[in-house]
Design brief:
heterodimer, A: mainly alpha, ABC transporter involved in vitamin B12 uptake, BtuC, 2 domains, three-stranded mixed β-sheet, 16 helices, B: alpha/beta, Rossmann fold, six-stranded mixed β-sheet, 27% strand, binds adenosine-5'-triphosphate, binds magnesium ion
Chain lengths: 420, 510
């Protein structure tokens, strides 16, 4: 618009520019004060790039002098902050990336000084830990794109996790476990859909109810039957690691991406498939229309209720896969409340990813990274109480939800029942 | 001459309302049937029945001589019936192509949406009927006039030959209306038949081949447009004589109520849409703001009522600055606002009428005592206002969203006029209203003026501006081109100013 030639900078924009600049400056100083001053001059940090169990070609470890690296990170952050204050950059994504990158690298340098830290191992476990989060997020994306909120994902995953391990143990077949988990997820979601579509029950209330019922019944079944009969009911084994030929030989990337179990691969495939379905097929077009403006879809003969049922149920089936990951995909056994809030973190990843499957996966990876970092740091005996480290993924969730995402715009009809 | 469509004995009841009562209408092939009627007469209801969105309680639908069962929009589409709704049915965050293809998506490779094919077809339809649109544009970026074209393309893409246009001109600028009439012309030449609903009698006389008038859910009669005049039609619609000319005495302006100086405002998309506007409104006068929609009028009103922050400038009400205060404070100082978008800013559609009637003052006696609402006072207030302002509703407990468009507007007017005010800001106050209601609301505005309030009237209808205003400000691209006395100007002169012609040149050309 030509109108904008008149330069009156909006106050809000100016404030935002300045606050990002100051944040970067502060991070630079914090890096210096916290990590720079507490690092021995001349100490080296070793980043391991090989996994012992992996088939990948071995490469030498990365050895970095800790202090200079920390100073460099502080300098980058301060410089970026000063530039931002002086000139202002449009893309906030870049600013946040710089901020996070410098802080995390400096932190690792400090935490692992004079020790060895397996980078490849951590990245690999980030991907694995991101898997249930991503599946929960994908479940959210599919149902909310059709305007049905499902906060019962946590409960659905718990029930699927338990159903998977019991059926897999009884039949000695992990695939049966996976299929049962998918069916259980679909059924519970169908129940949610029936309540909120047919009877217009409040979607949050129904979701909370599913979570309560899910926690209650699985804990009951677990303590009543599974603990006493551990080997006959609760010992399924797990999906084996599948190494993809050739690709798994690539150093670093191989062990991270190409030596995983079935569910991790399935997740990546599902993300891509759902992304294509959502944006390039009639089903996706109708889903998005129903989520944005159901009345418009209705006037064109699209069955709003049918679309919502299908989406919520499909979402539930994906959450079922997420549930299966916890038991037959990682430990081979069910423990009470073992999902530990991953369903909710998945919803945060969905929002952070702007209701877009690939975005949701990317943000799940960030959460997965925070989670595996926390574990690694405990092993390294970093002088931070483990309770704080455990909080890391949740703090990341909150920071991302409040600060970074800003105004994420959900589907316009999200959460509203459709009245003819 | 054959009839493509006949509706026989259609009856539809809503709780407490008989919306359609044994309605018969006939549409001849290749002709335009204009459907007239007061707000709430049942026009949209009838059309929604025809399109399969409501199920009639009684009656039958005959298409091309055969009785058909229409259970839903799919059946209507299969019968070649297409509808452009009163409130557009477009998904704002999707492209034109996506909106058009929704529901009957062609695919390539078995699953992937074939957008190119649809875009190509859209271009063909555009060329054939003169409906220029960019298939890749997002709906939210298009002006209403173009959005309406998309709606028509949607209908044509489905190969409809019976088109229902429910109040297509209510939200259009005069230029866009011209464009629409040209399109209608080509459609008729291509053999389509059209049902056209409007409240603008001149349009009816200009385009219709047949006219059918509804009142209170029944057909009051049909008339040949050659024999009709605006007065006859108005009387048929309302059931009494309507004064189409506003009666008013010359204004007796007092001191300024509202003084605006050098105002700059940014819209939600951060475009600077009001650029250095200054004017004043005095007690006892109507200042009309004319201009083609989208030249900054909306943002100007939002800034005056505290709904958008100012970029620069001052706004003073009775000498005191109000540009850094809250909307409630502005209301409490005696500003009444009839908003342009009544469904978004004027009413809470899911609240009953009685609550909508006290939205500005719910926290004060008599409606509230301490923290508790006083139901008795709220109900009796609503009863009185419904009666006084002739809101057509079965009761005050009905949700505002279930009222017809015109009656929703009356609820807002009743609420805003029922408290003492210094300044009335009325934005498109009669959009979508029938002649009877327009007459009524115009009278009320003049009454407020004569009681000594200042009135700022924003309207894209030149007739309305000329009928009510004492002085007229013309806005173009966010600026005021000129402020002229209403009795020293003409429609043509205003038209030139609205098109951005400089005042000195505009007066020479006249
Ligand atoms: N969904 C509904 N529920 C209850 N009453 C309704 C509903 N829809 C319409 N009505 C009522 O039916 C009557 C006819 O409404 P309709 O919308 O058909 O009027 P209209 O002729 O299109 O008026 P307008 O010119 O204002 O659009 C009105 O009294 C209205 O209050
Ligand atoms: Mg209507």
């Amino acid at each position: 618009m030509t109108n904008d030639n008149i330069q009156i900078n909006s106050a809000a924009e100016k404030r935002k520019r300045i606050s990002y600049g100051i944040a970067l400056l502060l991070v630079g100083f914090v890096i210096y004060l916290l990590f720079g001053l507490n690092t021995q001059a001349g100490s080296l940090t070793t980043f391991g790039l090989n996994l012992t169990s992996s088939q990948a070609i071995k490469v030498p470890d990365l050895i970095v002098p800790a202090l200079p690296a920390i100073y460099m990170m502080a300098a980058i952050s301060v410089f970026a902050g000063a530039y931002q204050l002086a000139r202002g950059v449009r893309s906030t994504g870049w600013l946040i990336s710089i901020l996070a990158f410098t802080f995390v690298v400096a932190f690792l340098m400090w935490a692992a000084q004079d020790k060895s830290f397996n980078l490849t191992g951590m990245l690999s476990s980030s991907l694995v830990r991101a898997t249930p989060i991503a599946l929960a997020a994908l479940c959210g994306v599919i149902s909310e794109r059709s305007a049905v909120i499902n906060i019962g994902i946590e409960g659905i995953m718990l029930m699927s996790a338990q159903a998977a391990v019991i059926s897999a143990t009884l039949t000695h077949n992990l695939y049966v476990g996976l299929i049962v988990a998918i069916i259980v997820g679909g059924l519970v979601a169908a129940f949610h859909a029936y309540l909120v579509i047919r009877f217009k029950v409040d979607q949050i209330v129904s979701g909370v109810a599913i979570n309560i019922v899910g926690t209650g019944t699985t804990s009951f079944i677990s303590s009543r039957f599974m603990q006493s009969a551990g080997d006959t009911l609760n010992n399924s084994g797990t999906f084996p690691i599948i190494s993809i030929p050739i690709l798994s030989k690539i150093p670093v990337l191989g062990p991270v991406f190409f030596e995983n179990n079935l569910i991790v691969y399935l997740t990546i495939i599902l993300i891509v498939v759902v992304h294509i379905l959502l944006f390039y097929t009639p089903w996706g077009l109708r889903t998005r229309a129903v989520g944005e403006h159901p009345k418009a879809a209705d006037t064109l003969g699209v069955n709003v209720y049918f679309m919502r049922y299908v989406n919520v149920i499909l979402g539930g089936m994906i959450a079922g896969v997420g549930g299966a990951y916890f038991t037959i995909g990682s430990v081979g056994r069910f423990d009470e409340i073992m999902t530990a809030g991953k369903g909710f973190i998945g919803l945060a990843a969905m929002i952070f990813g702007k209701w877009n499957p690939i975005g949701a996966y990317t943000s799940s990876l960030i959460f997965g990274f925070a989670d595996s970092l926390q574990v690694k740091l405990q092993i390294l005996r970093v002088p931070i109480p483990s309770e704080f480290l455990l909080m890391a993924p949740y703090i990341v969730t909150m920071i991302i939800l409040t600060g970074v995402v800003g105004r994420a715009i959900p589907p316009a009809a999200d959460g509203q029942p459709y009245e003819k | 001459m054959t009839n493509v469509l006949e509706l026989r004995g259609i009856t539809k009841r809503f709780p407490g309302v008989l919306a359609n009562d044994k309605i018969d209408i006939t549409l001849r092939e290749g002709k335009i049937l204009a459907l007239l009627g007061e707000n709430g007469a049942g026009k949209s209801t009838l059309m929604n029945i025809l399109y399969g969105l409501y199920k009639p309680d009684e009656g039958k639908i005959i298409v091309r001589g055969k009785e058909v069962e229409i259970q839903g929009p799919n059946d209507a589409i299969a019968q070649g019936i297409g509808m452009v709704h009163q409130h557009f049915m477009l998904v704002p965050v999707m492209t034109v192509t996506e909106n058009v293809m929704l529901g009957i998506e062609p695919v390539k490779n078995g699953v992937i949406l074939d957008k190119e094919k649809v875009a190509k077809r859209i271009r063909e339809i555009s060329d054939e009927y003169g409906l220029e649109v960019d298939p890749t544009a997002y709906i939210k970026d298009l002006p209403v006039g173009i959005q309406q074209r998309v709606e028509i393309i949607k209908v044509l893409y489905r190969q409809a030959d019976i088109l229902i246009l429910d109040e297509p001109t209510a939200v259009l600028t005069p230029q866009e209306v011209e464009g629409l009439f040209k399109i209608i012309d080509t459609l008729i030449k291509a053999g389509k038949s059209i049902i056209f609903i409007t409240h603008k009698l001149k349009e009816v006389l200009a385009v219709a081949d047949d006219i059918t008038v509804l009142r209170l859910g029944t057909v009051v009669g049909s008339i040949d447009p050659k024999e009709a005049t605006s007065e006859i039609l108005a009387t048929m619609m309302v059931g009494r004589d309507v004064n189409l000319v506003v009666q008013k005495q010359p204004a007796k302006p007092g001191e300024p109520v509202l003084v605006v100086e050098d105002l700059f405002v940014r819209d939600e998309r951060q475009h600077l849409t009001v650029q250095g506007v200054s004017f004043d409104v005095r007690k006892g006068e109507v200042l009309g703001v004319a201009g083609v929609q989208g030249n900054g009028q909306t943002e100007l009103v939002y800034a005056l009522t505290g709904l958008l922050p100012l970029e620069a400038g001052t706004i003073r009400l009775l000498g005191e600055p109000i540009h850094h205060t809250t909307p409630r404070n502005i209301l409490e100082r005696g500003v009444a606002h009839i908003p342009e978008d009544r469904q978004r800013h004027g009413l809470i559609l899911s609240f009953p009428i009685h609550d909508n009637m006290m939205l500005c003052t719910y926290y004060k006696p008599p409606f509230a005592r301490g923290i508790s609402l006083q139901e008795k006072a709220i109900f009796s207030n609503a009863e009185a206002l419904v009666k006084q302002y002739d809101v057509r509703t079965p009761s005050i407990y009905v949700n505002a969203g279930n009222l017809s468009g015109g009656n929703q507007q009356k609820v807002i007017v009743a609420r805003e006029f029922s408290r003492p005010i210094e300044l009335l800001i009325a934005s498109q106050p009669t959009r979508g209203l029938d002649v009877g209601s327009i007459e009524y609301i115009h009278k009320q505005i003049i009454k407020k003026r004569d009681e000594g309030s200042g009135v700022l009237l924003v309207s894209s209808e030149l007739d309305e501006i000329l009928a009510l205003s004492d002085r007229i400000a013309v806005m173009y691209k966010g600026q005021i081109m000129d402020i002229v006395d209403a009795d020293k100007t003409s429609k043509e002169h205003l038209g030139l100013l609205m098109a951005g012609v400089h005042p000195s040149e505009a007066s020479i050309k006249n």
